[in-house]
Automatic annotation (TrEMBL):
Organism of derivation: Teichococcus coralli
Keywords of the record: Isomerase
GO molecular function: isomerase activity
PANTHER family: HYDROXYPYRUVATE ISOMERASE, XYLOSE ISOMERASE
Annotated transmembrane regions: none
Family matches, as InterPro entries: IolE/XylAMocC-like, Xyl_isomerase-like_sf, Xyl_isomerase-like_TIM-brl
Name of the protein in its database record: Sugar phosphate isomerase/epimerase
Database matches in SUPFAM superfamilies: Xylose isomerase-like
Domain Xylose isomerase-like TIM barrel, residue spans: 29-268
A Pfam family hit: AP_endonuc_2
C-alpha cells in the first residue's frame, strides 16, 4: 500500500469538499497551492463557465482530473423524460472528456415521483448507461457507477452495493472491453460484509475507476450533509484503501466530504490543509 504521508500529490480534492462556495478558478488555485495531485469538479461548479478554458486552467495548475461529478438521475416517470436524461448525461460525458477526466461519475437516481417499482428504476439505469457506453469508450472516459448507501435507495440511488454495480458492469461489458467501472466511496461501502470479496471481484477486470474517502460520524446528524473528516468517525479507511490498492488501483485518493454544518463553514485553506494532514495520518 502506498504511503500518503507528505504525499498530497497522490490525492485529489472533490470540489464538493469545499461546499461549492468559491469560483472554480479560486478552487483550482487553492488545491494546487496545497500540493494535491488532482481535482474532481462538480457540474454545478462549471455552470456558465467555458469548459475548455477550465480544462486549460486545471492543466496549467499541474492538476489531473480524477473524476467529473456527477450524472443526472436515469430513472424517470416517462420514456421521454428518460431519453432526455440520457442526452443530458451525454452532454456531461463530453464535458468530462474536454476536462480530461479519468471518469464520469454516475449516480443512478432513485424512484421517479409516484413510483414504487425499484426493479423498473434499475432497468432504466441499465438502459441509460448502455446508451452511453460506446461513446464513453470513444472519448476515453470511463463511466464510473457509484453505489450509494441503501438509505438513499428511494431518492438518490437504486444502486446500493458494490456487488450490484459490478453485476451491471458484467451485464453491459461482459467481455471487459473497458469504458465502464465503479467509483468506490468508503462512506457508502464501509458497512458491507461482502466488500472484501467484491473488491477482489472488481480486480479481475480492473473495474475500480475512482476511490473516495471521508468518514462516518457517530452520531450522524444528517445522512447527506454530515460526512466527517477522515479520522473523525468509525470507518477503517486505511484498511479499505489497502484492499482497494491490492486490486491494482493506483489512481488518486479523492476526498469528498459533504459537511454543511462544519467543514463547509470553515476557510477553504483550513479544510484543504486538514485534508492533506489526515490523508497522511489516518488514510
Amino acid at each position: 500500500m502506498r504511503d500518503l504521508a507528505g504525499r498530497p500529490d497522490l490525492c485529489a480534492i472533490n470540489t464538493a469538499t469545499l461546499g461549492h462556495s468559491a469560483p472554480i478558478g479560486a478552487v483550482i488555485e487553492a488545491v494546487a497551492h496545497q500540493g494535491f495531485g488532482g481535482i474532481a469538479p462538480w457540474r454545478r461548479d462549471l455552470e456558465g463557465e467555458d469548459v475548455a478554458a477550465v480544462a486549460r486552467r486545471i492543466r496549467d495548475a499541474g492538476l489531473a482530473v480524477s473524476g467529473y461529478c456527477r450524472s443526472s438521475a436515469f430513472p424517470a416517470a416517462t420514456p421521454e423524460a428518460a431519453r432526455a436524461a440520457v442526452e443530458e448525461n451525454r452532454r456531461a460525458l463530453r464535458d468530462a472528456a474536454t476536462l480530461g477526466a479519468r471518469c464520469f461519475v454516475l449516480v443512478a437516481g432513485g424512484l421517479p415521483p409516484g413510483s414504487r417499482d425499484l426493479a423498473a428504476a434499475r432497468g432504466q439505469l441499465r438502459d441509460g448507461v448502455g446508451a452511453l457506453l460506446e461513446e464513453a469508450r470513444q472519448l476515453g472516459v470511463t463511466l464510473a457507477l457509484e453505489p450509494l448507501h441503501p438509505v438513499y435507495a428511494a431518492d438518490r440511488s437504486c444502486l446500493c452495493t458494490l456487488g450490484e454495480a459490478l453485476d451491471l458492469c458484467d451485464a453491459l461489458d461482459p467481455e471487459a472491453r473497458g469504458g465502464l467501472g465503479v467509483a468506490a466511496d468508503v462512506y457508502h461501502l464501509w458497512w458491507d460484509a461482502a466488500l472484501p470479496r467484491e473488491l477482489r471481484r472488481a480486480a479481475r477486470h480492473d473495474r475500480i475507476a475512482a476511490f473516495h474517502v471521508c468518514d462516518w460520524l457517530v452520531p450522524t446528524r444528517d445522512v447527506l450533509l454530515d460526512r466527517g473528516m477522515m479520522g473523525d468517525g468509525v470507518i477503517d479507511i486505511r484498511g479499505i484503501r489497502a484492499a482497494v490498492e491490492a486490486t491494482g488501483y493506483d489512481g488518486l485518493v479523492e476526498v469528498e466530504i459533504f459537511s454543511a454544518q462544519d467543514w463547509w463553514r470553515r476557510p477553504m485553506e483550513e479544510t484543504l490543509a486538514t485534508c492533506a494532514a489526515r490523508l497522511g495520518s489516518v488514510c
